[in-house]
């Protein structure tokens, strides 16, 4: 297969792609003091796959994670598409999606997939920030690079900064530990402030939803990201299923990445928001049975708040 056919395949499988020399990435990463491992591949193919903007609100008995988890797990989808592109291509290569030591957003910026927004996301002219990123490390027989021209920026806009409920976004920069999407995906005891701020089962969509660059964008839905029905997580399943049973029922969903316990903990914060004490007995049982102190501690704290809201003390 020649390079032209290879690029045709990339175009067919992905929404956008760019090809940069690894040395370009390493040079920029050094300037930014980023840590990276040794790498022998000469090229990085940066791919982007769009996903649709869809909002589903949690109900009393069903909770939802961030919209990036809707449909089949994007890690699997990207790797499957990368494998299709590489089929019959006799070069050595490696795939990287999400969990690896390279900064995908930096690579995407350098490849011209989009510009780096103040919401810390790559913003593409056609798909906004609703794109998944991945990298194919490879040695290609080409000297040039394929870098898309991006002529856009946030400019004076600061809507996401002003809309972030926890003031995690700065101008410039970001306080990771304040971000809902960061702390609700971290296995730890949630503070009262974090419990109060959390509104999503896993992740946070606010700074994408408010962004004007995400208006009037292309809204293609790849079949893989069509709703599977497993977007709605039954609260009862969280508190009655074993990890194995839960993984079986909700298999191939991106929110499973950190396991069920973190979803249980986050679900508790949504129950508290809803003042929903229907599951108090199940929560109590989960505290008695669960081995993880970070879960027990947060669950006990939320259960006592739920009990108080169910039986308010006289003034
Ligand atoms: S993901 Fe949510 S909490 Fe994090 S920066 Fe964006 S709006 Fe703020
Ligand atoms: S909301 Fe405004 S400042 Fe934030 S990423 Fe979008 S364009 Fe940039």
Give an overview in words:
With 315 residues, the chain is an alpha+beta fold. It has helices at residues 3-13, 22-31, 74-86, 104-110, 159-163, 180-183, 192-197, 206-209, 235-240, 243-249, 260-273, 280-289, 293-310; strands at residues 16-21, 43-50, 62-63, 93-96, 115-116, 122-123, 131-138, 233-234. Strands 1-2-7-4 form a 4-stranded antiparallel β-sheet, sandwiched between helices. The longest helix is centred in the last third of the chain and has 18 residues, at 293-310. The radius of gyration is 22 Å and the shape is elongated. It binds iron/sulfur cluster (SF4) (2 copies). One iron/sulfur cluster binds next to helix 6 and helix 8. One iron/sulfur cluster (SF4) is lined by residues 117-119, 154, 157-160, 210-213.
Structural features:
single chain, 315 residues, four-stranded antiparallel sheet, two-stranded antiparallel ribbon, elongated, binds iron/sulfur cluster
| Uncertain regions spanning at least 5 consecutive residues | none
Shape: elongated
Class based on secondary structure composition and strand pairing: alpha+beta
Provide the succession of SSEs.
HEHEEHEHEEEHHHHEHHHHH
State the helix count. 13
Mean pLDDT: 95
Using only CA atoms, what is the Rg? 22 Å
Q: Would you count the extended β strands for me?
A: 8
**End-to-end C-alpha gap:** 78 Å
The bound ligands are: iron/sulfur cluster
Main sheet strand line-up: 1-2-7-4
Helix content: 25-40%
């Amino acid at each position: 297969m020649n390079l032209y056919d290879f690029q045709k395949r990339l175009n067919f499988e992905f929404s956008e792609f760019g090809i940069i020399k690894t040395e370009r990435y390493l040079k920029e990463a050094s300037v930014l003091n980023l840590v990276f491992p040794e790498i022998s591949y000469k090229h990085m193919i940066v791919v982007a796959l769009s996903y649709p903007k869809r909002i589903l609100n949690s109900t009393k008995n069903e909770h939802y994670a961030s919209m990036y988890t809707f449909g089949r797990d994007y890690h699997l989808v990207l790797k499957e598409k990368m494998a299709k592109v590489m089929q019959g291509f006799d070069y050595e290569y490696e795939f990287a999606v999400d969990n690896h030591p390279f900064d995908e957003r930096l690579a995407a910026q350098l490849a011209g997939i989009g510009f780096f927004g103040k919401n810390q996301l790559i913003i593409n002219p056609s798909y906004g920030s609703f794109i998944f990123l991945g990298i194919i490390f490879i040695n290609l027989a080409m000297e040039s690079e394929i870098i898309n021209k991006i002529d856009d920026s946030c400019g004076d806009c600061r809507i996401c900064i002003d809309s972030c409920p926890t003031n995690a976004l700065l101008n410039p920069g970001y306080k990771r530990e304040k971000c809902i999407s960061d702390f609700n995906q971290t296995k730890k005891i949630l503070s009262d402030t974090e419990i109060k701020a959390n509104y999503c089962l896993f992740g946070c969509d606010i700074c994408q939803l408010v962004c004007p660059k995400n208006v009037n964008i292309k809204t293609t839905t790849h079949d893989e990201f069509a709703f599977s029905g497993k977007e709605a997580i039954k609260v009862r399943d969280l508190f009655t299923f074993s990890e194995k049973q839960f993984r079986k029922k909700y298999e191939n969903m991106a929110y499973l990445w950190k396991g069920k316990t973190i979803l249980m903990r986050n679900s508790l914060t949504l129950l508290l928001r809803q003042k929903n004490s229907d599951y108090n007995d199940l929560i109590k049982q989960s505290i008695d049975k669960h081995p993880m102190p970070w879960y027990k501690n947060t669950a006990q704290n939320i259960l006592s708040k739920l009990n108080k809201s169910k039986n308010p003390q006289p003034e």
